[in-house]
Amino acid sequence: MTTQEPPQTLSVSQLNGLAKQLLEDCFAQVNVTGELSTLSRPSSGHWYFTLKDDRAQIRCAFFKGRNARVNFSPEPGQQVNVRGKVSLYEGRGDYQLIVDSMQPAGAGALALAFEQLKQELMAAGWFDAANKKPLPATISHIAVITSPTGAAIHDILSVLQRRWPNMQISVLPVLVQGEHAAQQIANALLQANIWYSQGRKDFDVILVSRGGGSLEDLWPFNERIVAEAIYNSALPVVSAVGHEVDFSISDFVADIRAATPSAAAELLSPDQSELVSRLHLLKGRLANSQRRRIKLWQDQLLSLTRRVRDPRSQLREQSQRLDDLEIRLQRQWQQVQRQRQQRLAAANQQLALLNPERQLKTKHKELNALRGRMQHAIKQQLQRPRIALKNMAQQLKTLGPEQTLNRGYAIISNDSGAIVRDANMLTNGEQVNATFSRGKVALLVKK
């Protein structure tokens, strides 16, 4: 007998992990329709809700970044279509759907989503005429964002070939319906602007277009991502989506809305037949204008010819006028000469009055007088100090020591030259010096 091995024991975490892996492998991509219930939007930006029908329900998680692409405002009780993968939240063991995209279910829901986004963008000012860019006066290069195989590009090229074959067209191919169409259209708008800013393409305008279809078919042109790309475009954008009765969000945001792709092509191109007719008209107007101008010049020439006089008579008049001018010039010259002579005489007279020799004599006399006054003043200034010096010398002689010495006195000083005024300053045996009126002697103190 063979013994059967006991089953492997799993932890709760291991079991939930295996279940999660199994669910994600088996249901990697599913589309589910149901009614929204218990929708919550925490500050993290994630959405958590329940999707249910009349017999069952499933928890759903719609993470931030993914839910930013939703172009309507979902509400509890609303029927929606969601796409995502089945997974399991291991922390609670809850079976859930990780949502990648959400669309309203049914045409009525799409119309509601359309109206909600329209009102939101209108309130934000994206439809305002002040934000619309005008079309260039001359358009030579159009960037067409559409399907390369659709009816729209065929209509556009047919109209341009008929009206203006020289128009340069660059087709940026995109899907115009389906879940990836909106992202491709937005990327093409961004790419056209990048090429234009880098100078790689000389686009004058961008044409976003597709043929007619149902609301579901035209839905990529109602996506927020497309509206935002049109609003941020540096190049003017023309929107031609669907038939004349169709309106999309891109029509409202674009700078110009054309009813159909063919109408957009006519709007962006001149009509060569109309231009040829206009050129013929302008040619005729120019010819008529030249004929009228030539006729006017002929009439003026005839009138001037009739007014022309005999040149000999004009020469005589000019000669007489020249003589008159010569006489007037001579008179004026003589008058100017007299005025100059009068001014010269006056200047000579004034020069005589201002002769520097006379002024030098006067200044010389003034200088001699000042020199005498200065010498007298110097003598007086020197006399007073001499007298004062003589008096001071007499006083010095009277008060000086010589007079005292002449009366028989002597001046005693020690070896250092200091005057001895007190006998107590001396000691026995010290030598002193005695200065008399005539001569000096050295003395020895004995007592």
Task: Note down, in words, how this protein is organized.
- The protein contains eleven helices and 13 strands.
- The chain is of the alpha/beta class and 447 residues long.
- A five-stranded mixed β-barrel has the order 1-2-3-5-4.
Number of helices: 11
Shape: flat
Strand order of the largest sheet: 1-2-3-5-4
Q: Which structural category do the helix and sheet elements fall into?
A: alpha/beta
Order of helix and strand elements from N to C terminus: HEEEEEHEHEHEHEHEHHHHHEEE
Termini separation comes to 162 Å
Unreliable residue stretches: none
Structural Rg: 62 Å
Overall helicity: 40-55%
How many E strands? 13
The average pLDDT value, as a whole number, equals 86
Main pleated-sheet profile: 5 strands, mixed, barrel
Q: Approximately how much beta-strand content do the residues carry?
A: 15-25%
SSE topology sketch:
Layout: H1 12-26, E1 30-40, E2 47-52, E3 57-62, E4 79-89, E5 94-104, H2 107-123, E6 141-146, H3 151-163, E7 168-173, H4 181-197, E8 205-210, H5 224-231, E9 237-241, H6 249-253, E10 256-257, H7 261-268, H8 272-307, H9 311-353, H10 356-399, H11 401-406, E11 411-413, E12 431-435, E13 440-444
Parallel strand pairs: 3-5, 6-7, 6-8, 8-9, 9-10
Antiparallel strand pairs: 1-2, 1-4, 2-3, 4-5, 11-12, 12-13
